Amino acid sequence: MDVPYDLTSYVRVLKLASTPSWEEFSRVALIAGAGIVLVGLIGFVIFVLMSVVPGSTPA
Fold first, then answer.
1. Do the domain assignments include residue 4?
2. pLDDT tens across 22-41, in order?
3. Record keywords: Transport included (predicted)?
4. What is the per-residue pLDDT for 33?
5. How many structural domains comprise the chain?
6. Could you say which DSSP state residue 20 is in?
7. Is the per-residue pLDDT at 59 higher than 70?
8. Is residue 56 within 8 Å of 50, Cβ to Cβ?
9. Across the chain, what does the average pLDDT equal?
10. How many CB atoms lie within 10 A of CB 30?
């Protein structure tokens, strides 16, 4: 493990990185939020189906 080489590569990456514009940030946040809602909705549908089907939950 070459620590000086690793540090210079990290600094190089940070210099190349830039702050996203508000439009780019809001679009990424919207897509991520939609994905979270979709996964939650799928989980809720599975929960409802497991509650409705008799004998599906152990007693």
1. no
2. 999 999 999 999 999 999 99
3. yes
4. 98
5. 1
6. P
7. no
8. yes
9. 87
10. 10
CA 6 to chain centre: 28
Block residue for tokens 């679009």: 27
Asked whether residue 1 is assigned to any structural domain, the reply reads: no
> Which range marks the domain in which residue 35 is found?
18-59
Token code pair at residue 39: 């996964």
**Position 58 pLDDT exceeds 70:** no
16, two tokens:
């190349």
- The single residue listed with the structure tokens 């508000």 is 22
- Per-residue model confidence (pLDDT) at position 29: 97
CA dihedral 45, 47, 53, 58 (to 10 degrees): 170
- Give the 3-state secondary structure of residue 1: coil
Alpha-carbon dihedral angle through residues 45, 48, 54, 59, given to the nearest 10 degrees: 120
**Is pTM beyond 0.70 here?**
no
